[in-house]
Fold these 2 entries.
Entry 1:
Amino acid sequence: MLTEADQNLITVEIMGNRHRVPEAMTVIGAMWYTGHTMTRGVGCLGGVCGACATVYRTKDDFALKVGLGCQLKVEDGMSFFMTPFYPTAKPNYRIDEIEHPKEELFKYFPESLNCRNCNACNKVCPQEIDIKGAVKDAVKGDFQAAADKALSCVMCGLCVSRCIAEMAPNMIALYARRTWSVFYATKHERLDRQMADIEKGRWNDEWQKILALDDAGMKEYCKARR
Amino acid sequence: MDEFHARHASVVEATRAHRMKEAVPLLRDSDKEDLLARFHPDYKRDAYRAIRFGPNQGDETVHELAALLEGDSPLGQDPVDLSKPDYRVDVLVLGGGGSGATAALKAREGGSTVLLATKLRLGDSNTVMAEGGIQVAVKEDDSPVQHFVDAMHGGHYKNDPALLKVMVEDAPFVVNWLDSLGVLFDRDEDGNLKVKKGGGTSRARLLACKDYTGLDLMRVLKDSVLNEESIRVIEFAPAVELLTGADGAVTGAVLRNLDTDQRIVVQAKSVIVATGGIGRLHIQSFPTSNHFGATGDALPLCYRVGARLTYPGTFQYHPTGAIHPEQMAGLLVTEAIRSGGAHLVNKSGERFVNEMEARDVVCAAIIRECMEGRGVETPLGRQGVWLDIPVIDTMNGEGVVKRRYPGMVRKYGRHGINIATEPVLIYPTLHYQNGGVHIGVNCETEVPGLYVAGEASGGVHGTNRLMGNSLLDIIVFGTRAGHTAAERAKEVEHGNLTLAHVERFRAQMKAAGVTPETTSPMLLPNYVRRPSEAVETPA
């Protein structure tokens, strides 16, 4: 393994304080390396849970950039902080009580009509989702398009933090995706048939046989059917 | 292209055409057993020791877990006032992953008042990272019995048949439930639920949402829990000790708020432990695919109140954990990529195992290649073998990889690696706890009032879990735990809150002559650079 001496040290700014850390570290790695104990801001460490949303600037650039701290590599001159939580107004809805999902979108998310096309949400999304487009799709009634766009949303909340219309684009897209699946996606006859078969007890005789098998009998039974 | 790949991966491309024409046969049982015995980490003797007291006295497990099971309660020096609980509910659910969220919803449905307490955020879990899918028999030529046969065979015939039977028969009902909540499973061209084949299975029965199955599931379950105003959720408050009543029944728990360090006392008629896996114990120094909070808390908590463990020494190492670049070390490359046709390739460009063998066999084969000098070393000294993913496009047409595995494409894409055109390096990663707390078909343990669901429980998968059966396990048993706990709440009164079980445990410890090495549960791994190293380097 490379020792610290072999690794080049670079300078990063963590919430305003400068530190020297080995290059090729992740943001979270750099936090641990510099002695920060973290409870908030660490989740799956695999890039899909949205716990580690990180906002940063790079050397000599005023632009704000984003990434997920468990995957984002530090670079020399980077200044970052992590945003593990953002207050999000979330309407409560029961999926089994919804009757007209497209109309009810405006009951639960009336602010979804207020998008001013500023594109801040798209610019801040660490998953590069066209989340503005997803909101527009939902408002237009094209829930399938919204659902497709929002597949990889990790619910980090960065879009909520930037929206000038103060909506929660991630929550709107999730509503569209959930209701599209329940109301409009094709149904699954195969699943219904399996449930009916089980309720009728189609395999009960077989189960009786199987649960009475000893170890040797079980092996024989299974190998014969593989 | 990644610099390291550019320098070392050419042998993979050069041998691809040849490998595509090859058929690698499945191993005979005797050869499988030999391979496992020689190379699988579960068989490494010096990594194991006997548990010295308690319900599993004499059983062997890895040192890391034995230390936690024999660990002392963290409620030692600092007495907690148990006379005025902060919360009094019918059902306390510990854990905010798939099984915990499901249990909370089902307990609520059963009429209970519910508190869900989770160590990190609701949804921070191993569930959210699941990629490949959930198993359910749907095709004409498939059945729950066939599903049982596959899982029993994969589990080395150590599965609890009663648990396995209920899991495979509940499968279509729980998948239907997920569908009714809005989980968006992939459809095929005819509009039917699309099924894929997983390792070790004889039929295609995996349902997925591309390679984001766990994310979609967890997103929907979390949203459903939050939509239920009557389910109280407390985040960043893991349990540090269970509480028991006069008859030894579990009557509540003590939580610790990680932000404020304050203790929270919860009185509950039932406690459902759904705290997930053990990856962050880094057993035998393996990297892990697991989330930050996966420290096996269920095991010492339940062990201390007298619950027995099943197969406490068996762990699943997922064959394809990324090892390069270093930022991705331990992360899973979904098995779906192997069932989609990818090849495992050693340093010389050869395949060395049939990629669709069950996970433990594939792991042992990879470890063998590396130990016998046919592995590839990364710049930071990790050993592994190649996973030839581009062969999928070569066989099926350009664009297939990008379409089927968008999550994987993105994960590697962040680091400048295009998996449609570059192979990647992998090595087994600590992935899953096959065993766990012993349960019956309704998640009951020997201790009244204590239920366990999901990865923390043991028996249903035998000693080796098949792909797609964990997502199934958590929803099936989360459901059963929730229902059963709700029923119990209608039949019993709240019990006293005491730490009598801790006294009993300490007496057993003393009688066995054991000095605890640590307190348990661990709660979180510590990756902070140690104080002796942490000299501030002037910037």
Entry 2:
Amino acid sequence: MYRFRYVMIGLLLLLFVSLPYIRSLLEESMVGTMLIQYPLLIGSGFFLAKGFPRKWRGFFVFYNENGIAGIFTAICVVGFWLLPRSVDAALNEPIMEIAKYMSLSLLVGVLLFYSWQLLGPISKAFIWANLISMIFVMSWLYSVSPVRLCNNYLVTAQQQLGKAMFVLGVAICILFIGRVFLGKPEINKNTTMKKRKYINLNIHAKELDERMT
Amino acid sequence: MLRKSIGILFALVAGLSLLWIGTDGLRAFTAEKARIIELEREQPKLPSATLIDSNSENFQLQELKGKYTLLTFMYTSCGDVCPVLERNFAEIYENIPNDVLGKEVVLVSISFDPENDSPTVLKSYSNHFGADGEHWKMATIQDEQELKNVLDALEVVVIPNEYGGYEHNSAFYVINPDGKLTNIFDYQTPQVVVEYMDSILF
């Protein structure tokens, strides 16, 4: 039943982003396309993959034991769709739009789900470090670029995107620093009756928990 | 171990070839550059259109066959790009020798805003940049469908912006005597165009 729930979340999210009204709302601005539509598409694939049957897991793990192959493919595909000419192509031609939806959700989201769990700590750290620095570099590039990078968006939209990416980068940094002080958040999913607590929190800090009991 | 390597190898090949094809060999990251590379390869023919120039005379695009045509697209109420574009176009105009100007090379600036750019407006714009109206014409295309055909053939994208003007991609377009587009040059480097014309004509 839980598997079915994840599949439904994934499919509904995909459907939601594909609705013509939502699509035109998102594609009106560069920020909407790159910072909202892309994560929603990848997220829908992620949830879809969470609901895949256990048997299918073998296929993704077989060639991919340390997760690097899957993550590299996912990064290349996302990199392709981040290029300004791909953003333009997806807006101008319907075939590219369909390819974008299919590849970002079914390819990147699924590969991301399976490969992220298989990655070791060094690879994960490498990816996070590069991701954060890439976000800051791209935000600077978009803010200062004198030429219009995409033919379908104005220069003001580009600068807006630069500022939004900067905020995103700062948010990720704050989350990381917060994790140093507060510990990794863990969503409590136990179904047994627990001892009544005075303060009932749904999200427990794992380290604090271990230290106190 | 071998399976992991095969997986990584496949991912490397597939991913990098996707990026290679996607950027036309790591050359074109923007649609602009990709458009230029593709247009220079394809060499599309200019469609036919009737233009009205600053002297209120009609002329056909087909009449320009037999000569090299240098084209730019602009609109007179433009604030940022078109003045620079036309200033550089004027520099090309001044640097082309007088004996070939008009006989082998003509310059045309086409405005894609026919409502506001009447022939009188174009006349004052021409005088500002030193266009003589004969060898360097400034013109509009009155028929909307013909204008759209010309803009689409050369892949000029025009979007109205929030200030009542337009944002558009700008470049110098070189049309050969057969009416085919052969080259597109960056509008900020007029000397390159002059040198190119030198090398073709002499």
